[in-house]
Amino acid sequence: NVVLVDGVILNGPTTDAKAGERFVEDACRLIMEEVILKATDIREKVCEWRPPEELKRLLDLELRDAGEPHHRLLERCQDIIRYSVKTNHPRFFNQLYAGLDYYSLVARFMTEALNPSVYTYEVSPVFLLVEEAVLKKMIEFIGWKEGDGIFNPGGSVSNMYAMNLARYKYCPDIKEKGLSGLPRLILFTSAECHYSMKKSASFLGIGTENVCFVETDGRGKMIPEELEKRVQEAEKEGAAPFLVCATSGTTVLGAFDPLDEIADICERHGLWLHVDASWGGSALMSRKHCRLLQGIHRADSVAWNPHKMLMAGIQCCAFLVKDKSDLLKRCYSANASYLFQQDKFYDVSYDTGDKSIQCSRRPDAFKFWMAWKALGTLGLEERVNRALALSRYLVEEIKKREGFKLLMEPEYANICFWYIPPSLRQMEEGPEFWAKLHLVAPAIKERMMKKGSLMLGYQPHRGKVNFFRQVVISPQVSREDMDFLLDEIDLLGRDM
Ligand SMILES: O=C(O)c1cc(=O)cc(C(=O)O)o1
Question: Which residue's alpha carbon is nearest to atom 4 within ligand 1?
């Protein structure tokens, strides 16, 4: 007997599971062949550049009334892969993330298929325990005996959490009473800090005018004496300093702030110390390089993104808090009765989702856990050490090559340099020289993307004209790739 409600047949399932399963199998085969097997093949192009208007036509993005047959969908999947940048490619150096970790990729496949939301133990028993285990281990590497934390959708969100948590610690009433009646809160960070400091200050209603950008030295490191001076000035003005955000591994230069000296100042003035180690935090896994973050155990909170140097797959971002009480939960919880029932049959302290500003949340810790489980701490340490050794190799090669000029001696995996084409090499380094040099990197970048041979970031930075920023991360990158990088830039730019 057919059951009809509002003209809809309710008997039996409607989706054709068999067809769907076949589509999944075909699509997985396509992904294996077109992405994974080619991911590290340097004969493949890093990108298949097309201008936006042309790409819109090629992809036929319009959504229509009628669906499309599977064979047509598979063709579209092929196009989408073809025109997507191959961030796994050994010569993708464009961002602070790169490369393919096979173990974290499997974790990503699994969580996409399982599709959990990490708010309660009842829905995500495994992934909540995985998150707890990973946070615990990361806290150990920071040097805290215990603490708290949560995985966030981005390092910017972690920095926002830190700012809000520091403010909440400073005046807990804000959660209920809001901003009215607050003193003029001031936070301090370095002139090299991540742009999410400004985003966070505006988003949280602190105001970007109340972010004090402390001067840095020639290598991009915050000057403690300058910080002390700015804090005292703010106190004299009757403002309310509450937070210092230091950076371990700045975005462009890869600079590490002197954390011990900064922590001394925070202790003296009773300020929350947040360390944005989104990029540099991974050096904590290396016994050789962890000294870059000397003093990080004195921080009140840390942002650390395993999706960067440790290749856990975008996004994988931990926000860690030294306070082991339930400060994080008190600050963010809203006790939704339909998720965080207190009368459940199990220990509800495992329902950790209320520590987050999010409701639905992806199991991002699992990507990192799988890679860590596969490689071990020693394998991850080796990954960091190799990336920094390869960086050192490149620095020495640049020093040997005519036409390449380092901005500075790097501390980490960011190698910033100019390429000076032969036409400019005899010019005196005056305004005209710099004006002409400013045009070189963007032009070489255009040529490399249209050729698909390489992707490397460039930027102007604090008065310096456009320069390249090479970032070394992936174990699939070889010395030969470093040589290729310099050869290719010279090949693409020598006629400029
Ligand atoms: O997560 C990243 O890969 C990332 C985050 C940034 O803020 C900036 C950059 C970058 O400049 O490449 O990368």
Answer: 96
Contacts of 92 (CB under 8 A, 6+ apart): 46, 85, 86, 98, 99, 455
Within 6 A (CB) of ligand 1 lie: 95-97, 194, 251, 308, 457
Quick one: tokens of 102? Answer: 């096979």
The atom number, within ligand 1, closest to the CA of 97 reads: 3
Structure tokens that stand for 446 in this block: 């255009």
3-state secondary structure of 248: strand
Going by alpha carbons, the residue nearest to atom 12 of ligand 1 is 95
First vs last C-alpha separation in the chain = 78
Identify which of 466, 380, 462 has the alpha carbon closest to the alpha carbon of residue 417. Answer: 466
Integer Cα distance of 407 and 452 in angstroms: 26
Query: What's the one-letter identity of residue 81?
Result: I
Q: Angle 206-203-272 (CA atoms, 0-180°, nearest 5)?
A: 50
User: Looking at the whole model, is its pTM more than 0.90?
Assistant: yes
Whether 95 contacts 471, CB under 8 Å: yes
Tell me the C-alpha distance between 376 and 461, whole Å.
Answer: 37
**E strand or H helix at 56:** helix 52-59
Q: In a mutational test of the pocket of ligand 1, which residue from 94, 97, 459 has the highest number of ligand atoms less than 8 Å from its CB?
A: 97
Rounded to whole angstroms, the Cα distance separating 167 from 152 reads: 19
Pocket perturbation via mutation, ligand 1, pick of 95, 157, 192 by most ligand atoms within 8 A of CB: 95
How many residues in the chain?
496
d(CA 432, CA 422): 15
User: From the first residue on, what is the mean pLDDT of each consecutive set of 10 residues in the chain (496 residues)?
Assistant: 90 86 97 95 97 96 96 97 97 97 98 96 97 98 97 97 97 93 95 97 97 97 98 97 98 98 98 98 98 98 98 97 93 91 94 93 98 98 98 98 97 98 97 98 98 98 97 95 98 97
Chain centroid to CA 45? 24
Tell me how crowded residue 484 is: count the other CB atoms within 10 A of its CB.
Answer: 17
